[in-house]
Structure formats: C-alpha cells, structure tokens
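#random but structural
TW: two for the price of one
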Amino acid sequence: MLILIAEDDELILKTIEHKLLKEGHEVILTRNGKEAIETLKEKDVDLAITDIMMPFASGIEILSAIQTMGKQLPVIMLSGMGQEEVVLNAFDLGASDFIVKPFSPNELMLRIKRFMPK
C-alpha cells in the first residue's frame, strides 16, 4: 500500500515510517498540512495517516480536502487530544479511525491492516 503520513513531530513521523517500511508499505512523508494536501492532489495514495494539530492546515482540513477532491481513501487521525468533541468531529467529517497519542506502532499496524485489500 502507498501510505501518506502527515505529522509535524519528527520522532513520531520517523517511527511510523520505519514501522510501515518494515511491513513492506511505500510511504510518503509530509510535515505540515499544506504539503499533505498538495501531495494528495498529485498522488493516488491508498491510506492517509494525519495528525490533527499541524502547521499551515490541520488534519481536519486535510480530511475536508480529501472529500472535496472526491477521493475515497481511509484516513486514520492521530491526536494528543483525546477529547470526545474532537474525536466525534473527525468521524463526522469522514475519518476512518482515530488514535490518541502516545500509541504503539503495533497498534497502528493492526488498524492499518483493516484497510488493506484482501
């Protein structure tokens, strides 16, 4: 699978990248929301993983842009904020899953496997 990661925390970004590459996935790294949206316009990715709080455009704005583009892809949202309001808003806007930081890379892989083609 080709997976876009949108995360401004370099340690989390590299941890996710390492785990996904080890599992045989292709990865595109973006470090802010604007870069993620531009990449999504240019590339056909199979899954997006995005932090909610990021520079230039939030994960919610990325989710909205995906819908505006008419792309049908699963989106896993990451956030240090586990507030119910934020989680519900993300799901209302079409998020496929939501993980509160800190999280285990193994848990993320289990969640990604749900979206892999059979």
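TW: number two ↓
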Amino acid sequence: MATKRMTPGFSDQVMGLVKSLRTDAPDCVASGVVDMSTGMLLSYETVDNHPPEVLDLLAGATLDLFQGRTVVMIEDVFKERRGMQSDNHFFQEILVNSDNLTHLFVRMNEQQDVVAVVVCRKSVNVGMLFAQVRRVVREYQL
C-alpha cells in the first residue's frame, strides 16, 4: 500500500528556508524571511539575542529597500519608458555592508513580496554567499 506524502504548509516551508539559509550560508549569524505585503518578519534564527524592536524594524527596513516610495517611482519610470505592464519588481537582490556584518536580501522567485534575509560576518566570501543563498532560495519556491 502506497503512503501519501503531505506537502508542507507555507509556515513549514518558511521555517525550513530559514533553517537552510542559517546552516548553508557561509559565516551566517542570522537568517529570516520577511513578508512585505503584511510588514511581518515571518521567521528567523540568530546566534545572538536582539532586542524585539530591532527585529520588528527589520521588516520595515526590508520594505523600504525593495519597495520604498522612491524605488517604486524609479521602477515606474523605467516600466513606462520600456512599455512594460508588469507587476514584477526590478530589485531582486540587495547587499548591504555594515561595520561588522554583511546583509543579503533576496526576493523569492514566485512570491515577489517575500524576501529572504541573511546576515553574515563581514569576512564572508561574498561570491560564496550569493551562490549558497541563491541555491537555497531556488530549492524553496515559496
């Protein structure tokens, strides 16, 4: 008798994505998933304790990076000039370096409003970071 495999639900997929990013991204100290349509941090893992207000602000900061007012205006101008009628966004990946850390933000391919966030030590090999995160994101078609 064949057993039926259950497809994991969205929240299980999100938690799996966060765990895979945390373990597979080189020098990773934190990973998370942000839903920009709701402004919520859906899930995260970190090696450090962070104040809740910082975690709450992460979703808003991610939204500003990808879909802030000025970013949307730039996208609209280019879409108009190119005669495009798409809802897709131009910014797909953003790398931010701070004093001690490297932050990589990557839109999910299927769900444009869902962004994976990976935070690594500044010493990370950026090429390996992109390669590993892209591989993991491809595996999790949210």
